[in-house]
Amino acid sequence: MNTQILFRSRPAGEPHESNFRRVQHGIPTPIGGEILCRTIWLSLDPYMRGRMSEGKSYADAVDFGEVMPGATVGQIVESHIEGFAPGELVVGYGGWQSYWIADGHGLRKLDPSSAPISTALGVLGMPGFTAYVAVIDMTGATSGETVVVSAAAGAVGSAAGQIAKIRGCRVVGIAGSDEKCRWATGELGFDACINYKTATDLDAALAKACPDGSEIYIENVGGVVGEAAFRNLKVGARVALVGLIAHYNERKHHHGLDIAPILWKRATMRGMIISDHAKRMPEFLRDAGAWLREGRLKYRETIVDGLDNAPQAFLKLFHGENIGKLLVRVADDPTRP
Amino acid sequence: MNTQILFRSRPAGEPHESNFRRVQHGIPTPIGGEILCRTIWLSLDPYMRGRMSEGKSYADAVDFGEVMPGATVGQIVESHIEGFAPGELVVGYGGWQSYWIADGHGLRKLDPSSAPISTALGVLGMPGFTAYVAVIDMTGATSGETVVVSAAAGAVGSAAGQIAKIRGCRVVGIAGSDEKCRWATGELGFDACINYKTATDLDAALAKACPDGSEIYIENVGGVVGEAAFRNLKVGARVALVGLIAHYNERKHHHGLDIAPILWKRATMRGMIISDHAKRMPEFLRDAGAWLREGRLKYRETIVDGLDNAPQAFLKLFHGENIGKLLVRVADDPTRP
After folding, report:
1. What is the CATH topology of the domain spanning A2-122+300-329?
2. Is the CATH number 3.40.50.720 carried by domain A126-275?
3. Helix, strand, or coil here: A200?
4. What is the chain B residue with the closest CA to A254?
């Protein structure tokens, strides 16, 4: 059977399990030009919250009754496309379901001997690619500059900080637990990491970690973290506006950000959506693949077992419960020992 | 006697007349390398509110007991600097007082036959220069693009919209009264102007005036106006962050702006402070002077008589009571009929 998690109702504020509905159907049959894939890994990402909202966002809203969208890693069961064979592993956009039909568009084959296949959803996938474009293309971080990264232990933030380190920057993370901060400084090589939940004065903590302010800020969060990071900017700073997860569950957009420091510091803030940058993907895969093999780019995964647990797992993102990439293991990964 | 308006106490929220103190001293005597100027016109500008606040801003806070700072147009009474002669008219930074001592630095002579000398504080001064840099350098507005301007009837906004028109843009203003909107569309050539105070749905009004959104937004205001303008941006839009007057009187910076559309629209927002751009002043004076003579750049002045009324007049800025440039006539202008 094909288990699917459908979009049932719009959350008013924080999503709830009741916004999703689980259904089961027979496994679909691919026709000419199609492939049937069995889902192994499902990626859970903050952007999905936007697609559950009414009205304009960077992606179209999902319709009620549609399968929740999402990137997936799976194995080909049956193929009617030349060049894709049963048993091969692929990353695509299968959504929250245990089998999906692909037309080959946007499907990329994975070599499990090169990197664990789940990384195609994390450090070698959309989150890692987002970090790469944010640090390199959006802000042009160069050697000697100070880079502040919020959600420093998230899938994007952890990669962004490490890429900035690879480029010779001083990197200061902001994260929501001591464990996250220890990972950032202890394993990922961040120069400092501030636990914003326990800092008595976030501005003072940032000032201490960045005595001259920061040339660059990678914004994933917004809220009080974003405002403190804005105040910490140097004159002429560059901000990559990647995400605003602190605001995604607001019922109306009343809780904005004090952007006066963007003015005072003559900063430049650039909003980005990774899908605009698809042509940079080959360079990213080349660079990030090499960094991963060389041990210069590390990652962690928070794994939740079973598609049925995806709705509950999704909520973890908004409570900061994941460290690194949040994944649902929909089926056993045949490439993992 | 020299009348001075001193900074007396920090406003908690909106400035009040009690934050200022009026004193009288003897007229100061210039020594070698100095000039004594008699103030004719005093400029009142939103940035002055920032200088009354504690803590970081783009300018240093004024100390208690200091003369309130401000740009002034005056006449030289006595000069000990070669090249400046009594009777000559100058624009400088004399502050809120009826006489000031200048050391020649930043002092520029004015030719009353070329333009009314008060324009050196408005359309040919800092506000006009700000508009010029915002439209041309910060956003690079080009022919055929749609430019939205907030505070459209203010000193900066009215110039910004006209400069965008001169560059071949479609210009939509947002202002706070029907009279202001009539001025913008009737005299200044704006294509449309929305009264945000009477619009039942500002988003809908902007969507109607900009059916495809706007490529450019000149932000002077923030608040609900700024948020609506952000939502109205096209993908890839450019925002010049010039001012945030709706927020200057906030006690703490709690009332931020929803910047999610900057992310969704992949917009670029650039904060600017005009003093960074001093080297562009000659081009600005050349271009704006020509546009003024050709009747392509128009302006209005809201004039308050008497230095004693400066504190009360300053409050007008925050209530939107001025149209065009807000000036204090400190002494009769000998060049005006």
Report:
1. Quinone Oxidoreductase; Chain A, domain 1 (3.90.180)
2. yes
3. coil
4. B258
Q: How far, in Å, CA of A50 to CA of B82, rounded?
A: 66
ipTM of the complex: 0.93
Taking a C-beta distance cutoff of 8 angstroms, is the pair A73, A118 a contact? Answer: yes
Separation between Cα atoms, residue A252 and residue B258, nearest integer Å: 10
> What tokens appear for A161 in the block?
């900080």
| Ranges of chain B whose pLDDT falls below 70 | 55-59, 252-254
Structure tokens at A196: 């914003």
Burial of B177 (0-12, 13-18, 19+ CB in 10 A): middle
Q: Which of A259, A261, A264 sits opposite B257 (nearest CB)?
A: A259
- For chain B, the domains span 2-121+300-329, 126-275
Q: Are strands A301-305 and A325-329 parallel, antiparallel or unpaired?
A: parallel
pLDDT averages per 10-residue partition of chain A, 337 residues? 95 92 96 97 94 73 93 98 97 98 94 97 98 98 98 98 98 98 98 97 97 97 96 97 89 77 96 97 98 97 97 93 96 93
A245 Cβ contact list (under 8 Å, min separation 6) = A46, A49, A151, A220, A221, A222, A317, A318
Class of domain B2-121+300-329: alpha beta
Contacts of A261 in chain B (CB under 8 A): 56
